[in-house]
Design a protein that fits this description.
Blueprint lengths: L1 E5 L5 E5 L7 E4 L6 E7 L4 E6 L4 E6 L6 E5 L6 E7 L2 E6 L4 E6 L7 E5 L36 E4 L6 E4 L15
Antiparallel strand pairs: 1-2, 2-3, 4-5, 5-6, 6-7, 8-9, 9-10, 10-11, 12-13
Pfam families: FXa_inhibition, Ldl_recept_b
GO molecular function: Wnt receptor activity; Wnt-protein binding
GO cellular component, one term: plasma membrane
Amino acid sequence: KLFFTDYGNAAKVERCDMDGMNRTWIVDSKIEQPTALALDLINKYVYWLDIYLETVEVVDYQGRRRQTITKGRQIRHLCGLAVFENYLYTINSDNLSILRINRYNGTDVQALARLDNAKEIRVYQKRTQAAVRSHACEVDPSGMPGGCSHICLLSSSYKARTCRCRTGFILGSDGRSCK
């Protein structure tokens, strides 16, 4: 799945399949300006910052069990969001410090370091990497990902795929080749 925020006409947190199909709103009320999003892949939770409402909130992948982690004026200065173990990590754009926040109750806020210029944060650690299994976009014997001549996108599961073409090409009637 692909998770993303939108604060155009109607602010929301959404998810869809990797090929853009099955687009679903998972948060569409009491939300104004969601600017950063992080996933807990193990427990299947979505965290986001709303800088207008000055909140950090969480829901499960279906949009249920919504909780406010923390709120207050300091939220409007946060950008980027990552989750690892018991903490959320974000950047305070006011003083360019990396902050660590307890993700269960919003307490234990600590400034960890200062940076010259940052707008995003990511945690890379072996335990956060999902195990790779066989999937529909694996390279076939002729060297094409998922049998697609240009682009292979996972669809509704790791067993399904959709072929797409680069700009200027159209998908052939076989659903795999681009012309």
